[in-house]
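Cross-check.
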Amino acid sequence: MGKSHALMAEVGSRQVYLNLSQSGIYPLSPNVEVLRWVKQPDGSAKPDFTVVDKYLDMVAKSVGTPLPLRLNVWNETNGGGKPQRPSAPLLDPATNKIERISQPAFDTDEAAAFWRPVFAEVLKRIKARGWLDVTALGWVANQNPPPEEFTELAKTVWPEAVWACLTHNMKRNHPVSDPW
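Predicted model, tokenized:
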């Protein structure tokens, strides 16, 4: 992967996607998220940033400073601008098996509590590398802007975020919502 990124950087492309959630990945992409959760003895789940750190190390070595670094977290996966509730990988250290767990509904306090510590840790790692000014919250969709429940959750967990959009034919001041 590092070799591919380095070759792209040689031709002027330093775009890097940091997929924090499977729903943040374009639905047809073979990529997987770099953030997983680890089951704790009390049954709760704690985020594990080991792969995030390795991935950012690889980016630093092969690309240097990305432009942009897109944090892909949520996207429109069922069409029509409707959010689909994502899942997350949960590693059970006792069995060494990974299962999928549901993330909280977007417009709940539980979602903010789920994502706030993740964003705090990821942004801390990005700031330490001096990349915050080239980092954006990614949005992948057909033609629709992020639904209100996404934009409100984003404002809660990363109030200063800017958006980077990968889509078809979306316009500013879209009648549904305008995160810009």
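Confidence is low (pLDDT under 50) at residues 24-30. DSSP finds four helices and eight strands in the chain. Passed to J.P. for a second look.
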